Protein: Acyl-coenzyme A thioesterase PaaI, contains HGG motif
Amino acid sequence: MTPSKLNTFTMFKLPSAWLCGIRVKEINESHCKVRVKHRWINQNPFKSMFWAVQGMAAEMTTGVLVMNQIKENKKPISMLVLNMNANFSKKAVGRITFTCKDGKLVNTAIKEAIETGEGQTIWMKSIGVDENGDVVSTFNFEWTLKAKTNK
Structure:
């Protein structure tokens, strides 16, 4: 998986995220970075970034890590967000970068799901930081992962 391929995927499969300017900037087995710039199309009435746009960008950091680990393991795994919570600490204006560093957690959960055949749940954190390095929002996503069985 490369940022370019993921951004093309976003354009066709998640057009609202793509139109809002959400772009994957970096991906590897341990972390993912997604960037979005405050613009007219993604703002709220208070002239800052709408919370849902921040949520899409944050979820993408976690979901891309899960997708990447599933691809690496070459086993069919289902993935679904079960819960989410967020904290907003500063007005989101300018360029916001969301980062999730929970790749190793995902790898462990996928291996456990494959070995046991049981569903696994993990909480993943994505932190949004503005151009000054200030945290604007923190999102936590609970993902469920389960190895698919051949029937």
